Amino acid sequence: MTIRVVVWGENVHEQENETVRKIYPEGMHTTIAKGLGEDPMIEASTATLQEAEHGLSVERLAKTDVLIWWGHKAHGQVSDEIVERVANRVWEGMGLIVLHSGHFSKIFKRLMGTPCSLKWREAGEKERVWVINRNHQIAQGLSDYFEIEQTEMYGEPFTVPEPMETVFVTWYEGGEVFRSGLTYQRGGGKIFYFSPGHETYPIYYNTDVKQVLKNAVKWANNPAPAWAGITNAPNTPADKAPNGPLTIKGETLHKAGEAGFR
Amino acid sequence: MTIRVVVWGENVHEQENETVRKIYPEGMHTTIAKGLGEDPMIEASTATLQEAEHGLSVERLAKTDVLIWWGHKAHGQVSDEIVERVANRVWEGMGLIVLHSGHFSKIFKRLMGTPCSLKWREAGEKERVWVINRNHQIAQGLSDYFEIEQTEMYGEPFTVPEPMETVFVTWYEGGEVFRSGLTYQRGGGKIFYFSPGHETYPIYYNTDVKQVLKNAVKWANNPAPAWAGITNAPNTPADKAPNGPLTIKGETLHKAGEAGFR
Amino acid sequence: MTIRVVVWGENVHEQENETVRKIYPEGMHTTIAKGLGEDPMIEASTATLQEAEHGLSVERLAKTDVLIWWGHKAHGQVSDEIVERVANRVWEGMGLIVLHSGHFSKIFKRLMGTPCSLKWREAGEKERVWVINRNHQIAQGLSDYFEIEQTEMYGEPFTVPEPMETVFVTWYEGGEVFRSGLTYQRGGGKIFYFSPGHETYPIYYNTDVKQVLKNAVKWANNPAPAWAGITNAPNTPADKAPNGPLTIKGETLHKAGEAGFR
Amino acid sequence: MTIRVVVWGENVHEQENETVRKIYPEGMHTTIAKGLGEDPMIEASTATLQEAEHGLSVERLAKTDVLIWWGHKAHGQVSDEIVERVANRVWEGMGLIVLHSGHFSKIFKRLMGTPCSLKWREAGEKERVWVINRNHQIAQGLSDYFEIEQTEMYGEPFTVPEPMETVFVTWYEGGEVFRSGLTYQRGGGKIFYFSPGHETYPIYYNTDVKQVLKNAVKWANNPAPAWAGITNAPNTPADKAPNGPLTIKGETLHKAGEAGFR
């Protein structure tokens, strides 16, 4: 069964900036989606900020297995309601891959609970991405490392929670390092952050980067049914306790059948 | 040097509910603070929802080493601005101890990035809290387990991120289990979630519970200077790269000295 | 492609103890393998302590995707050489599922680096296994919990490293709790510890237990090529540095081409 | 109360190699111990391979709060019995700091359960150690990074378990990266691995390196009583169950009072 991926693109610099438009005439989201589409297991479509509901309607998200997020200049224009909707889908089990400047997207900060800040520099310097666990699904088909000739530097400290797995660590020409591939589990959903991808360089055409994204989609995909109601706190009343009816002792705050506070 | 603790209490049920008022005539926050004050290393004061800025002014938080959070019925009345302020102080290094129904507080959900949902039942059943790592600072002075005669059941799944350390796991009379003591690191701050504490039982007078809170305060306290600016993403320009001035290659998005996007 | 599983059984109690023989007349390993074989994706064979090289020759392990380990009385009779061989295969990428009393097996202790001790009691009491993340691959097809009517109690503290994921936590009739399903990544290999399985009860015929094992096999299976040489520390000489030939500065310990110390 | 530290040194290269002897005429262990001794809270002594029981008698270890390990050429000469003794003390709560080539020491491999392999190069290149969490106790007093002018390169993949915390990541002149400061909890003991320290360079005289070691000693120190018997698996018989006497159901393997298998 194919994995249904939506590549979300902010789609602003491609419209406003000549350099970016030249590299990504169809938009970064389209280029990323085309790269993924090379894999017969993946069916990739796109969504953008400018569409109604940013292209992320309830119905569409319900049919999305993995969402890829690229944003930069317009993080603030993303609707809080949509961010909450996406967070809910991740908790239900949808995979999420956050790219590059998406470190400061509302959705990534929402799911990490930390500032997600970092150091940066635009100097077109070289980046060498080292593979930490070559047997990780996300690292399949890579060598010990791969290089990106021109990149934006993203440097430590990267203020995210300690990850489930550190998949990649990057070396920069200018002297910094970065944990460039990190995995997280949040609720039923898997999250992968991957730092390469500055829009003034043709990074999403890079064969290794495309390989990482294909791998990451397969890793993040969770075929389990959506975890409906994961945000609810259900009451298990005394007469339905696993050990059979309990005699209520002491005082209670809620009457039988009352909902909990939120 | 003493550790400056603020015990934040919602202070609603103590006013509205006869049962709770009888148990905690001065408010739960005051009882918790008095328990902490038994330790000469700890200097505990209180703050409540009803005070201006909920008692959590910028100045006060700046002088707070560890914040303890108890809320239940009025999570929604806590100002988003104060929540963000507290989150920032945690990232800067302030310790945070979240108690019981605080699992659904805005601040805990904000820092976890997950639903923080769980199962619950008010039946006054027994809880047995098992110690996983008896050498952990939070478990000092405890036996293999301690018991709370009457408690509210909080059952798994508890939808939080996998913790840094699982310190306690609880057994319930009715048949559920709960990871009742969990640690997290978020930015420069340490977070401890501890589940016992329902307001209709005198749990914060329990000797073992008081011991856990004293221990947790010491564990969460971080004497390092506040991590100022942790939410910023500073630019390291090409001429200030650690390896010395870099020649800029390729195109850039920002002009020299321009701030990054957020 | 089918997943090639070897179920390793100590095969001692089945021979010596009438109770165990009645429940598992063909040996526990055979029962476990038959349960796995219900899944068309899994091809399960068995190996026992009594066979040459305990049935775990280099050739056979090289063709094993996931190894399941059940041992109890005869941990000490397992050859250290075979233990090291299995550890190497796990590091290379083979999955390992350790069952019940295998907590004290040489291979599990070898891979955890901790005592792996726990509390225990044989009273035939009930165990209720709670699912922490219902969307985890290992939990597919289960309800909120499943029960084992008669079990050996395994209680905390379970002295293992904090896991990658806590998949299950168990409640016992007698009052203890146990982290009964834990995942680890060690080198290229995934490890799952699952505590149910005492030999005097028919636990491996239990539908939920069989489901967990099928799921765990799929989770632990890593189709990546074996990480050959993972135990080596390769030299990258100065003239082969990623950044091109380096001029050697200062003194060195090794002459060019010399192997490192071990 | 002072923290009692033993700095264990292999003390081989200092005797055999002219370069090393010139840098560390009293032995590396002595230099490290003197650096620690600058802190009034630390009382540091030394032990070496050549002493009886390698200087690590049961009595001495019992009075050691934190052990620091430096070994390289003679890992194989360390007695397995002493390794097991040290591992037991770590599980009981003794802190352990493993330095540089100690990545391949018996004790580190024993506690990690992984190959602990890495890439290496002796070229005297520069290392820049980046601080990931500046509020971590181990990073107190450091800047964003510190540099070591001449170092041995240790490169990824470093085949250790995912750490509790990634404290430092290193950049190398030659193009590699390394997770150079990692923390672990094993049983009751805290472990810190720190990679700088090649013996042909005066690294343990470096102010920042000395600061890290002082900090790490304080972090690893656990004033809790030793976790005696952590390797035992105690039986809790049916009549001593926390919930009161249990009626034994079904069959048992052990007679009442019998010890478990190991």
TrEMBL record, chains A, B, C, D:
Stored Gene3D superfamilies: 3.40.50.880
Residue ranges annotated for the ThuA-like domain, each copy included: 4-220
Listed SUPFAM superfamilies: Class I glutamine amidotransferase-like
Protein name: Trehalose utilization protein
